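Model it.
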Amino acid sequence: QVQLVESGGGLVQPGGSLSLSCAASGSIFSTYSMGWYRQAPGKQRELVAVISSGGNTRYTDSVKGRFTISRDNTKSTVYLQMNSLKPEDTAVYYCNLDKYNQVFAFMPGNSWGQGTQVTVSS
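Modeled.
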């Protein structure tokens, strides 16, 4: 079972930037698509960005042009660069994988990490 560890969250002012990381255990990381989710208080978990094993990406509309997902298969790590942050980006951010390497029908696994808190506030 793949274990996921998210890091890099924090408190940032509106307009600021943060870079999140998600380290995955397991030797077949490179064959999975990876996704970043977020969950704000009182809201459902939302898929924010996805990257396939080959580097194809997709984003939810609210973060297009501001967030960039990338991956380093040599480090079994996926990243989320977040720029021009807004208060509505405040949430706990999680990563997950799709073992079928899907992008538009991303299906997360059952195991979730602890997440990393992102707070955008002045």
